[in-house]
Amino acid sequence: MRNATLYYSVLGPAEQVEETTKGLLRARKFINRELGERLAMKYTPTLRFALDETAERAQRIERVLRDIDAQQRQESNAEEPDTEVR
Fold first, then answer.
1. pLDDT band at 12 (very low <50, low <70, confident <90, very high)
2. Residue 85 in domain
3. DSSP letters spanning 10-61
4. Residue 56 is part of a domain; what is its CATH number?
5. pTM for this predicted structure
6. Which residues fall within 8 angstroms of residue 4, CB to CB, at 6 or more apart?
7. Beta-carbon-side half-sphere exposure of residue 8 (alpha carbons within 13 Å)
8. What is the residue range of 30's domain?
9. Coil, strand or helix: which one is 77?
């Protein structure tokens, strides 16, 4: 294995994602050196970092589903006739 993709995620604003990405890129040589010392492989893999947006997408899907549910409840409440209890 000559290449390795490391997926990472950041739960926070875009600025935090940017800072984390910059930090990982700055630490790439250090991480590569540590891997070379610890792995029993002929070659140390070249590292590539990739932002994993799975958690963000899941939150977005959940938000959309909640909005749809709320809208459907609101529509079903509007369709029911008002019944007054005396």
1. confident
2. no
3. --S-HHHHHHHHHHHHHTHHHHHHHHHHH---SSPPEEEEEE--HHHHHHHH
4. 3.30.300
5. 0.64
6. 45, 46, 47, 48
7. 18
8. 3-79
9. helix
Cα 84 from Cα 86, distance rounded (Å)? 6
Chain segment 50-66, per-residue pLDDT in tens: 999 998 889 899 999 99
Spell out a b/e string for 35-50, using b for 16 or more CB atoms within 10 Å of the CB, else e. Answer: eeeeeeeeebbebebe
> What's the total number of domains in the chain?
1
For residue 86, is it within any domain?
no
Contact 36, 47 (CB under 8 A): no
Six-digit token string for 11: 């739960």
Mean pLDDT value across residues 35-54 = 91
The residue type at 57: R
